[in-house]
Amino acid sequence: MVHSFKTLVLVCLAFQGVAGASQKTNLLIIYADDLGYGDVSTYHASDASTPNIDRLASEGMLFTGMRANCTVCSPSRAALLTGLYADRVGVPGVIRTDSNDTWGYFKPDVPTLADELRKAGYQTAIIGKWHLGYESPNIPNERGFDHFHGFLGDMMDSYTTHLRDGINYMRLNSETIDPRGHATDIFTDWACGYVREQAAAAKPFFLYLAYNAPHFPIEPPADYLGKVKKRMPALDEKRAMNVAFVEHLDDRIGKVLEALKDAGLEKNTIVVFTSDNGGSLHHAQNNDPWRGGKQDHYDGGLRVPFMVRWPGRIQPGTRSGYQGLNFDIFPTFLEIAGVTPSPGLDAVSLLPVLEGATISKPRDLYFVRREGGPGYGGKSYEAIISDGWKLMQNDPYRTLELYQLNSDPFEKQNLVKSHPAVVSRLSPRLRAHIQIGGATPWRKMAPAPKINP
């Protein structure tokens, strides 16, 4: 009995020593891929059930007005990790393996969130999807991450083979690996393992958990699809597949949250959950109530689920209508880590909002995407939101559109012809953003692709 009591005391003292060495708040971003606003059941009634994501909102703060930085993958991720608009860091479009069809090059000398947090004493890790480069100097371990366990590429041909165009982009740091199982399960297991490891570490951690799901191909495990069909037998097959895919993702997010709790890290970890852009309408994803979807500058492509849980600091069940962008996480995390953000950032810290105050300074929100193919031609198209107005193109060949979002949040009435003064006021502001972004090359300096005569 005495021996057992002494052992218990020693264990407690050891735990207190570990905890005392890691007083800084742990930082976790859970980043979904193409998850629509309407596919998260905390926002409104949905045929998709997401109790674990919803729990983050009920235990923290639910944001209803946040937007992704871009309507597609790479630019949103570049902005998230730098606190700068994506074209400022060389990523106005999707980074691909084909040099003739890649529209971004992640500027190597720009510090990432991982760089800044590592300098502040954090262990830094990315698990899951990278999509910001395939070779040096733009692989995760060279951009501030101590640990990389995931996928370099844009999308997988299949969630069970993990290949892209027949090539394996799965890595453990620089080592090519060939794991078995569904990618969502694999990334979850790796994240849970990382959390358990950090529980015994003397440093705080920053984990960027970037799932591929629910990006197409829509491949839910069979048992999840069976449950959805049993619950809603009349549901369209395409929609049923997507609902099952989202519910599988939600279940695995729940496992990560449980791992935090079991490791004793829940109370000292801030968790931010969001998505890189809206859902793909072609794949039966749901962005209700907003117009459009992925690739659109309408809000269905931009407004995304966003919630923050911070035990002891955020009152559970609170809501905020603040209209910001995903990259606002960058200065927010820096301030939480005790680092003063650079005044040159485009992002704005959400810390006042999280602490119950307001951000009264008005801000413009800028969006850009460059894309190839016959629908885009390698050209860019942009949007700006300013003082409740949105001036936008929805592809490079369309004329400008103008919406008053305060009175017309669903973007039904194009006012570009009836409000020329607003267009004249916003157009120079939009051009100024385009000029700033144009100063950063979005192609690696290399021989130009051959043009067929």
Give short descriptive properties of this protein.
single chain; 453 residues; alpha/beta; Alkaline Phosphatase, subunit A; Arylsulfatase, C-terminal domain; 2 domains; 10-stranded mixed beta sheet; 4-stranded antiparallel beta sheet; 11 helices; 16 strands; 29% helix; 16% strand; disordered N terminus
Write a structural description:
The strands form three sheets. A ten-stranded mixed beta sheet has the order 8-7-4-3-9-1-10-11-2-12, with helices on both faces. Strands 13-14-15-16 form a four-stranded antiparallel beta sheet, covered by helices on one side. The N terminus is likely disordered. α5 packs parallel to α7 and α6 packs across α7. The radius of gyration is 22 Å and the shape is globular. The protein has eleven helices and 16 strands. It is of the alpha/beta class and 453 residues long.
Share of β-strand residues: 15-25%
Order of helical and strand elements: HEHEHHEEEEEEHEHHEHEEHHEEEEH
Helix content percent band? 25-40%
Number of separate strands: 16
Structural class category? alpha/beta
Query: What is the overall pLDDT average?
Result: 93
Order of the strands making up the biggest sheet: 8-7-4-3-9-1-10-11-2-12
List segments where confidence is low: pLDDT < 50 over at least 5 consecutive residues. Answer: 1-22
Label the overall shape: globular
Radius of gyration of CA atoms, rounded to a whole number: 22 Å
